Structures are given as C-alpha cells and as structure tokens.
C-alpha cells in the first residue's frame, strides 16, 4: 500500500478510536440543555457547572471518593511491589528445597480468575470481621501485601533472570548473606521492574471495580469507580453532565500516568503481554 | 520450570569459594532458610488468601449457605447446586450463551482489528510512537466504569452514534435498551480496546526477518501471498499468545455489562455475563453455595478451554526455533 494512503487510513481509524474520549470531554463541559440538543463534539458554550455539581452531588462529596481511591491505590502499590519483589528474589536467585514445586504453584495461581476466588475470600474476610469493619479496606489491601498478584511476581522473576549471576556469586564469595545480596545487588538493579510493577498496580487498582464493589458498602467508604455507579441509578437528563464530568476526572490520574510513562507501558506489554 | 534450570547449572559450575568452608552443608542450609524467609509473605498469601479459601469454596459448593449466618450453619445439600445449575436454572444457560457469544464474536474481531492496525503501523511512519500510544489508550483506560458509562451513553437511543448514523439517513437502533443489540454494544466496546494485542502484534512483526519478504518477492509473491505465506506463519506464536490471553479475558467481562444494565444483566438478560450472574447469585441473592458451584464450573471451563486452545495450537502455530524447521 502506498505511504500516503496508509497514513490516511491510520488517521481515519485513529479518529474513530479517539472519538468517544473526545466526545466525553466535550460533553462534560456542556450545559444540561445543550447535552439534550447538541450531540456534537464541541460545546457551543463551555460551562464548568457539571464539575461543581458533580463534585457535590452525593452527600459526602466526590473529593472523598477520590481520596479513598488514591489511598487504596497507593497502599496497593507499596504492598504489591514490596511483597512481590521479596517472592521474586527467592524464586529467581535463591536455592531452597521445593523451589521448582512452589514456582509451579505460583504459575498456576497466575491463571486463576479473580471471579473464582471472590466468594470464598469474601466469606473469609467476613468471618474475620473485616467486611464493613472499622477499616473496610482491609480485604482490598491485605492480599496485596501477601504477593497474591502472581503476575507481578512472574514479571520480576523474568526481569531478575536478566541480571548477571556473576554479580551475586561474587558477593556471596566475599561472604555476603542472601539478605545483603538482595539489599546491595538485586534491589538497586531491579528498579525498572519495580517501576513497571508500581505503575501497573496503580492503574489496575484505580480502574478496578469488581472487588471494590463487593467489599465497600458505606457511601463514605466508596472509591471513585463505585461512586460513579451511583449516577447510573439516577440517569435523569440533568445528571448526565455531572456523570461525564466525574467520569472524566476519574480517568485523569490514569491518563497522566499514561503520558508520563507511555514508552515504558508499551514496552511493558511488549515483553510480558500484560493487559491495560 | 525452565526458568530455574540454567541458573542451577551455572551455580554448580562455580568453584567452591570461602563461603563453603563453613561446612559441607553450611551455605546450602542458610540459603534454604533465607529462601523461605523471602518467600514467607507469598506463602502466607498462598495458603490464607488462595488455597484455603479455594477449598472452602469447594465445600460450600455442596451446601446451602447465605453468608449472614456462621459457616457452621451451612447445610450440606450434596450435588443439588450442580444439578440446579445444569437442569433447573434457565438463567444459568442463558448466561453461558451470552458469555460464549461475547467471547466468540469479540475476541476474533478484536484480534483482527489489532492485527490490521499493527500491519498498517509496521512500515516506517513518522510519529509511529504517538500512533501506537494513542491506539493503546482505550485499552489502558480499559475496564473502567468511567469508559463504560461514556460508551453506554454514546449508544443511547438519541446518543451520539445514532445521530452520526442519521447524517447518512440511517435510522439507528435503540442499542443499549434493545435486547437484540445490547450485547453487540458491549462487543463493540471490547473490540474498540484493541490496543493491547496490537502492541504485542507490532513487537512480533518486528521479529519477522526481512529476507523472507525479499525472497518471497523475488519468487513473484504479491502483498497478499506474502502476508499469507510469510507474515501469518511467522506471527503464529504471537497470534496464539494473544488468542489465549484475550479469550480468557473475554470470559471474564464484567464491568461494562454491569454498567450497561445497572447490575441486572438486562435488558431481558441480554447482557447477563457469567461473572455478572455469579455476582448476582452470590452477593445480591446471597446464595453463596450456588455461586460457589458456579465459580468452580467457571474455573474448570476456563481450564478446559485453555487446554483445547493449546491442543489445537499445535496444528497451526509454528515456532521458528522448534522442530518444524
């Protein structure tokens, strides 16, 4: 195919792909009357009203929902990176009995769909008094601190295979303990894998809906995605604008990550096939 | 796993150093201990968060249990849940059909879109990085509630899509409110997120040796024959990888179906995906025993499908470093 034609085709496809996103931005700046009358991309008059009314729409305010999301995501990032790194170091660099067997188990959990585990986990956490307890985020966060996202363990094991083995062999011959090898050799060299893990755990947790829907029941505990579904309950004409405005805001953190780490994200899915 | 094998053999190749002087088993013993120390969070998670709950759910799948009472009050019902699922619950088979339709239509379309755009992007084009990033964006925002909300509104009776069709004098369907079209709307949303497999295809296309195309064109093969006889076979491992990944993902679609139907699977159960049905049975109707049984069948089904894919893959996936060369 000729170059020009190819480029033209790509631009047309790109326009179709980006249309819903641009339409969302445009609509969130339209007044309620304009949403009903003007279906186009660009509002005749830009009004910030949807953002203010959406922000205050539910009793506790959308700011609260964003804070909740930010906290859950931030703690998940910490939990995932630390716990998965420890497990990956063990699998990738240490010799211990039954290592192969445990590694096979880890790969098996990688294939386990989350929907299969949600019911027994819910019952477990409920029995422990964590569901709707003093701090309702325990069921969302504790698993993240126990390296249950096997995907990231796998990602980091793969990465560590690329670190030259001579480095830790040399350190070991000098008498370094496995912990100091970890601290002084593997940890500093694993930074790219840590950053990838951190970015993807943030984005996935921020976008996650299923688990947050199941575990959060009080309005003030809601995260942004769960709060967004409140709008669906009341799809009157007047709530479409605020709903779009809050949807747009909820995508902004992910979008900023995307802009900042675009190259890394794309390379990340290249090498590991991970999903956005 | 193959991961650890080269590592071990190299370890053995290292001559004994001073560390070994602690005694014949000294170093080994200490690595054993620290191995388990580093593994301990994962091990704890494996047993407490994964394995024991799995066993619990297997047990519960043979009981009648409503979550509100203590576990000891779960009453044993034998195979009743499974019997009900296969013979006494029409909504179950409906959900199976909806999920199969979704996966069987969305996955091939999504992969075709991904491959098509990847082929277009594969030649030298200025700003390829930007293109690649922008096509990937919908996948990244992917399963979010926000995007599903926008999508559903676009496909309302008087939404943006119908007014677009109106420009060409085509009268649109009520899409999301029409049982015949609601699932198609969700399929379209899934296909729209073709960016992730596209990026993987692009990486695969880079691996195809240019000489193969040169040889093919010397032999007089046109663009289509080159695609058919060079690109497709060389790309087959990547196609296979994407196929497995997207199929497993396809079966787990939840968020968009939940948002479109406000958690009901409507209109008239047309978007009742398996996972949504499972959620409703477990967390709305509090029928946790039955939902556990559903979860186990789901797990077995996904396992079975993966095995079948791998079996059939043998017939069409060519690994250039494998025996078939």
From TrEMBL, chain A:
It comes from the Bacteria. The keyword Transmembrane applies. It holds the Pfam family BPD_transp_1. Gene3D superfamilies: MetI-like. The chain crosses the membrane at residues 7-26, 65-89, 101-125, 137-160, 181-206, 243-261. Residues 66-261 form the ABC transmembrane type-1 domain. GO terms for cellular component: plasma membrane. The keyword Transmembrane helix applies. It is found in: Cell membrane. It is a multi-pass membrane protein. Keywords: Cell membrane, Membrane, Transmembrane, Transmembrane helix, Transport. Its main location: membrane. One of its GO terms (biological process) is transmembrane transport. Belongs to the binding-protein-dependent transport system permease family. PANTHER family: ABC TRANSPORTER PERMEASE PROTEIN MG189-RELATED-RELATED (PTHR43744), ABC TRANSPORTER PERMEASE PROTEIN YESQ-RELATED (PTHR43744:SF6). This is Binding-protein-dependent transport systems inner membrane component.
UniProtKB/TrEMBL annotation, chain B:
Belongs to the binding-protein-dependent transport system permease family. It comes from Actinoplanes friuliensis DSM 7358. Residues 1-28 are annotated as: Disordered. Keywords: Cell membrane, Membrane, Transmembrane, Transmembrane helix, Transport. GO terms for biological process: transmembrane transport. It is found in: Cell membrane. InterPro entries: ABC_transporter_permease, MetI-like, MetI-like_sf. GO terms for cellular component: plasma membrane. The chain crosses the membrane at residues 36-62, 100-121, 133-154, 181-205, 288-310. PANTHER family: ABC TRANSPORTER PERMEASE PROTEIN, ABC TRANSPORTER PERMEASE PROTEIN YESP-RELATED. This is Binding-protein-dependent transport system inner membrane protein. The lineage of its organism: Bacteria, Bacillati, Actinomycetota, Actinomycetes, Micromonosporales. It is a multi-pass membrane protein.
